[in-house]
Amino acid sequence: MTPTSSTATAEKPAAVLTHANYKSGAKPIWCPGCGDYSVLSSITKALAILQRPPEEVVVVSGIGCSSRIPAYTSCYGFHGVHGRALAAATGVKLARPELTVLVAGGDGDGYSIGGNHFLHACRRNVDMTYIVMDNHVYGMTKGQPSPTTEPDWDSKLAPGGTGIRAFNPLVVALASGANFVARAFSGDPNGTADLIAKAVRHPGFSFIEILSPCVTFRPEQRDWKDHVHPAPVTATDDPARAARRLMTDDGMNVGVLYAGNRNPYPLGPKGKSVPLADLEAEFAP
């Protein structure tokens, strides 16, 4: 029997994407030993787990060492201004809700000049994932204390330490309404990749703090590998329970700490589209 044309031209199954499909040709230029190399690897591995084509993913960043991430991926990218990555990413997701939106940043970019955007991104609960590489220092601008720096960290730029209580991003994220809160360690790229994939799949605003050592200005952070440990309790969807857990956290628990069930910000048009000419006519003299 001669096969019909429809049988002969049956579609081939789609090729399985690997982490290499999400890497660009640009070579990372971080300092040797920087944890951000592993975070980049975890992001590409997570996208391979999700099997989202690169053209359906947008990576948005602000300013800082970690904000170079978009250039090192083959996805669509937007490298914005300092502290404004979440605002830009929110606009992308609202305009193109079918896309997967990731935001990459650091503790300086995200919690200092970008702190207000962080609060309201959590509150709005738009369906996107915020990945913060936290090294407790401004690495790109030569080692100033950041919002998460320990108050007694002694350095040439802050002799004796700042004396200021460190910002607690996970507590703030939970209190502000983030729907998924987790912590990872860059020294565990596979575990971090799994957490990023879980965050992307979870509806609403997902926040992951990744402990990513700056071996140039904080060489003592090499010891983090000896201190990180799995969270001793399972993830909860109870904000009160999560708050008690985070307030007594030693800063080294890794894993999903909170997975809520709040409805994400509604996406898509809320009414009929209006032709541009009609809008212009409303403002005509």
Percentage of residues in helical conformation: 25-40%
What is the top-level CATH class?
Answer: Alpha Beta
Q: Strand arrangement, largest sheet?
A: 2-1-3-4-6-5-8-7
Poorly predicted runs of 5 or more residues: 1-8
- Please tell me how large the radius of gyration is: 21 Å
Shape: globular
Your description of this structure?
This protein has 285 residues and is of the alpha/beta class. The protein has a single domain, classed as 3-Layer(aba) Sandwich (Rossmann fold), CATH 3.40.50. The protein is 29% helix and 15% strand. The protein has helices at 5-8, 36-50, 85-95, 107-113, 115-124, 169-176, 189-201, 239-247, 276-282; strands at residues 57-61, 76-79, 100-106, 129-134, 180-185, 206-211, 229-230, 253-259. An 8-stranded mixed sheet has the order 2-1-3-4-6-5-8-7, sandwiched between helices. β5 (180-185), α7 (189-201) and β6 form a beta-alpha-beta unit. The longest helix has 15 residues, at 36-50. It is globular and about 65 Å long. It starts with a helix and ends with a helix. The model is unreliable at 1-8 (pLDDT under 50).
What does the secondary structure layout of this molecule look like, with pairings?
Elements: H1 5-8, H2 36-50, E1 57-61, E2 76-79, H3 85-95, E3 100-106, H4 107-113, H5 115-124, E4 129-134, H6 169-176, E5 180-185, H7 189-201, E6 206-211, E7 229-230, H8 239-247, E8 253-259, H9 276-282
Parallel strand pairs: 1-2, 1-3, 3-4, 4-6, 5-6, 7-8
Antiparallel strand pairs: 5-8
Helix pairs in contact: 2-7, 4-5, 5-6, 6-8
